[in-house]
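request received
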Amino acid sequence: MALFSEIAQKLSRIFLGRIVVRSLDDIHGSKPARIDTHFRGAEVKPLRAEPRVNAAMFVRWKTLRAKSAGSLLCGEFSKKLGTEGMSFDAARKLKVKRLKFNLKRRAKPRHAIALMHRTPSTRRNRVNYLKKPPKFERATLLALYSPIFQEKVTKSALDKSSGNLLFWYDNKRIKAGEKSHLLLLRVFDWREPLKWLWLSADKKIG
Amino acid sequence: MNNIKLSLGYLTINSRENYFRGAALVTDSRGIPTDFRYTEPVCPTKLERVLYGSALDIYLREDIILDNLLDAVEAKPSMWLLTDETLIAPVQKISRLPAVVIGASARFPLEYSGQCEPTGESGVFMFQADNISAPLRLTVSPENIARINQLTQMLTSAAECMELMEPFSRVERALDTVSESESKQ
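response:
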């Protein structure tokens, strides 16, 4: 039908010079014109990433106190996970160590007078400094140790390698007595070739 | 001069490879010890060595060891005898007592005991402590040059009853004993 109507319209336009005029009602069934706006629909997406919990092997569940990064694991969500009062330490703070230099404390002085009392005193051989060495009959002077408080000496020893005399004083003895020279003599014609001799220091030698 | 009241202080600071240790011995005029103190060895860490740099040595010796040691000594001596010239000024400043650096010499003995001769160097003297030994070399700070006679009188008096340098060797032996016992622990 539509085809015949269209052919009739074309013939009448060619031979009769007529055109068809239609009312608005004729286009009632057609679709209304589509009007697009320049506004585009915005898709809203959250900037925050999806909540995600990574397991860490070094964290023992419910034994480690940790803090959350933001509020990911706080509130209802943490309740669901069973992590109330604790959370995963995602944002660990850098610790700044403070160094304490306690050198002063390390140089603590100790009192050790007893140790010093046990340490022997020494005397060097001074025979080389005698300007006029004393003369002895049938003996020569090998060493001279001075000054020594004879009465206070409790023990003595000769260090043969250095030639020094080591001796210990009795520090409890208050009275020191007179100071003396101790001489070591080499004696000729004697059963003991060496002889020790005490002389008062008041007696000048050399 | 009264010998009994005279006392001498011997002070030494050992700086070995990795530690510093100080010791102070006070003796009476006969050389008998009346007080002896030593510090525990101070071993600066690598970090401390880096941070303090060249100031570490001075800081440890003066501010740490000397300060602690001199504060701890109860028997105050008439003077401090040292072997290290760099310690004169800090020892005098902290203890407020005269400090003298004493050392042996290989020179021929001077004429008489108590004789003190200036050398060409400022504050340095040759001193004959007794008549049967080599003279000693004494170094004093500029403010004590005028007091040198007073100081040598005290030393001459002490030298009648003791060897002036001998207590230093005693301190060394005592510190060796301490180090040995510490290394065994």
